[in-house]
Amino acid sequence: MECLITLHLNLFPANQVGSSKGAIVMIGFEGTAEGEYFTGHTIGQCVDTQKYTPDGKGTLSARYMLEGVDHTGRSCKVFVENFGASLEDLHPTILTDSEALSFLQEIPLRSTVTVEPENRICVRIFRDNK
What we know:
- The chain has 130 residues and is mainly beta.
- It has a domain of 90 residues.
- It has no helices and nine strands.
- Strands 1, 2, 3, 4, 5, 6, 7, 8 and 9 form a nine-stranded antiparallel beta sheet that branches.
């Protein structure tokens, strides 16, 4: 799979609430993005929301906006929602104002998350060739 964007993210302390109906964990984050097509950093409030049912099943949804430069040298913004049932099953969708990156809105994507020391993670977004 071709890696399109790599994100290096710093995590903030988690906030959570639970009841007999389930649990929610929200983790804020910030960081940088790099790759052949885009280089930049997070802007605004970025959050990973994890929802769990009473039986322990869950979904993850990280939403964030990036600001930077596309591979043509133009300034742009990229919105990402990374959604899935686990860290091994994530499917990002992208929206961007960059004409050069508009192909990212049309192709199937997959991502991986690697936990790193000191409250950091690495997210890699790939073209899904399946």
